[in-house]
Amino acid sequence: MQEYEYDGSSVMNSNPAAPGYDIPPERPDQRILLLPKAALTPLAGDSRTADVSIFADDLDVGYVLDLFNHRTGPRIQGFFDRTFWNRLVVQIGHNEPAILSAMRAVCAVYEQVEITGGELAAMDQSAIAAYNKAIQLVVKESASSKALFSRLRLQSGVFGRSSLLRQITVKEIPKDGFNFQNMSEARDANVELMNKSIDFIMTTSPAKYTNAATSEMAAQQNWLKGRFHDWRRAIEDFLHRPNTILDNMERKGAQILMCLNNCCLIWTSTCLSPEESQYDKYKPQFEEMVDQCASIANLSPMYFCNHIGHFQFDMGLVAPLHMIGSRCRWRHIRKTCLKVLGSHHWREGLFDSYRSYRYIKAVMDLEEAEKIRLLSLAPTESDAHLPPEGARIHFAELGPSDPHSGFQVHTFFSKRFGPRGDWYMQTKSISTSSKDPATDPEEEPQSAYIASMLQKGLEVVPNDSSTKAFADRSNGMFYYHLVGPQMYPPKKNSHQTAGLAHNWADRF
């Protein structure tokens, strides 16, 4: 037996004799041992900190498993799911060709992302071949049952769930409060609570712009706020228990969960008001969250990108920083958000640090310029004032991204004429490059115009002062989402809920 070392870049080079790293159909003489070895800084009694040493007689299999275990897996896991990526996937992969081929594809793509600093212009052929092989093997497996999958199906049928696979759904939020025994429980409960709050926000968004919020909405809002506070008390109780053993990365993960929880609490607390100034009362929470995010990211770029990676599957720092930078109007807090997001380039699922940087910078520039205009301020006086209500961006609609131009058109919506006034819109092209956003050239908005429909009380009427037809830039359903069902009044004595159209753009 031999323990294999790897060259991270070689995974990108396909074997000419075996394109796509074809896997032999049978390996009767293969011998694989998964042996735990001590971590560099082990914590007593915590087996999650132990790595896995891989010994295999098959050079190809051993190389892929070792590469995924020591390089790719630890990076894509982010701050969570270490056991899943570094143990479960590796253990199943050594015995299931479909999983092994998928691991090979992920390794190849990830190496390309790391080499290019986040760009993936054209996928490497070896990754495509491995991915196709994984799909073919999955299709083949569906026709012939294997022992491992048979056991999983049996277990799922008997007990209703599989203990090997991480569950997406969790139990209904308990009425008597939360009590966490581990980080996984805390995280799942937080995700469930965030999902409920975001569904509520999406459903009630039109109501706040049409003065149509109901007492039932207010009651649901208060219930959600109470559950967020319950979760916060439970996680703090868990973290302060004497028997809670967490390493440094897990504690940083707990801080991320608290930031996400706080963001959704603030968003839920303000979702029934059309006034963006409602966010101003949460300055202490914004400062706490941005300090937490800055401390988590206060790792050297080499450590951050080598041990966490340019891409992670899970949501982490970018989402809360995006929300803070968009909703908090204190310049020093926004600048801290930009500093963290611009420190190095990384992605968390669909969230991109550089794109969030550019979005926040665009919102900040538009609001600051409008503040100076509305308040007749000298540039030196600007820092002493927050943007007034009429200067604040409520959200943006993202247009299609052109991979050839490297830009994406954003349409920013504000209420220049008051919370019940019509929408004032400005469009701006924002770079999608992976280069340092601090070096982007300054660009002025391409156009500004007023919506063709004007909100007057509960009625939506044509706006004679419109400077651009709304149909020129939208299919109309997005505006229906903004103004709510009053645009098409319900029949008498009928009950109609808000939020029937959800053409989501960028709600922050």
Q: How widely separated are the two ends?
A: 55 Å
Arithmetic mean of pLDDT: 72
Q: Please tally the helical runs, counting DSSP H or I stretches of 4 or more residues.
A: 14
Helix content: 40-55%
What structural class do the secondary elements suggest?
A: alpha+beta
Uncertain residue ranges? 1-50, 161-171, 452-507
Our estimate of the beta-strand percent is 5-15%
Strand order of the largest sheet: 6-7-8-9
The number of distinct β-strands equals: 11
Order of helices and strands: EEHHHHHHHHHHEHHEEHEEEEEEH
Let me know the largest β-sheet.
4 strands, antiparallel
Which of globular, elongated, flat, extended, rod-shaped describes the shape? Answer: globular
- What's the gyration radius in Å? 26 Å
Question: Secondary-structure map with pairings?
Answer:
Layout: E1 32-37, E2 51-56, H1 59-76, H2 82-93, H3 97-116, H4 125-143, H5 147-159, H6 183-209, H7 215-239, H8 248-270, H9 283-296, H10 301-308, E3 311-312, H11 318-327, H12 331-341, E4 347-348, E5 351-352, H13 353-375, E6 393-402, E7 407-414, E8 424-431, E9 447-450, E10 453-456, E11 459-462, H14 477-483
Parallel strand pairs: 3-4
Antiparallel strand pairs: 1-2, 4-5, 6-7, 7-8, 8-9, 10-11
